[in-house]
Amino acid sequence: MTFVQIIECRTGEFEKITDLEDEWRAATEGKRTLRRSVVARDRSDPKRHLILAFFDSYESAMENSSLPETAEFSEKQAALLEGPMTFQDLDVIEERL
User: Fold this and answer.
1) What is the CA radius of gyration of the chain?
2) Any idea what the CATH number is for the domain that residue 74 is in?
3) How many structural domains comprise the chain?
């Protein structure tokens, strides 16, 4: 079952986080299980960001989370945030085009 994680964070330094993600993507090439991601900024609160991360399954998301490169990325990213990230874990039960 497809799995989507919605991650919410607050930062005024999103460009630095994007740079960190580029490093993570290069370091995890061929082993990450993230299939797609969408990043959005709140129009009424420019420090609020939402990331939609798409995986083949919950298990593949947990596999991705357990990569050492993901732990390193998360630690560096946390230093740029104004508070802890929040996560919503969703099993996709229907998808339409």
Assistant:
1) 14
2) 3.30.70.100
3) 1
Residue 96 lies in a domain: no
C-alpha span between 41 and 44 (Å, rounded): 9
Contact (Cβ atoms closer than 8 angstroms) between residue 39 and residue 50 = yes
Domain span at residue 33?
3-91
What is the Cα–Cα distance from 45 to 47, expressed in whole angstroms?
A: 6
Left, alpha or beta for 91 (phi > 0: left; psi -120 to 50: alpha)? beta
pLDDT digit string (tens) for 66-85? Answer: 999 999 999 999 999 999 99
Residue 64 domain-assigned (yes or no): yes
Domain assignment present for residue 51? The answer is yes
Hey, what's the torsion of the CAs at 82, 63, 15, 90, to 10 degrees? -70
Strands 3-10 and 36-42: unpaired
Indicate the pTM of the whole model: 0.91
The token pair that represents 78 in the structure block: 């946390």
The two tokens of residue 45 are 């609160």
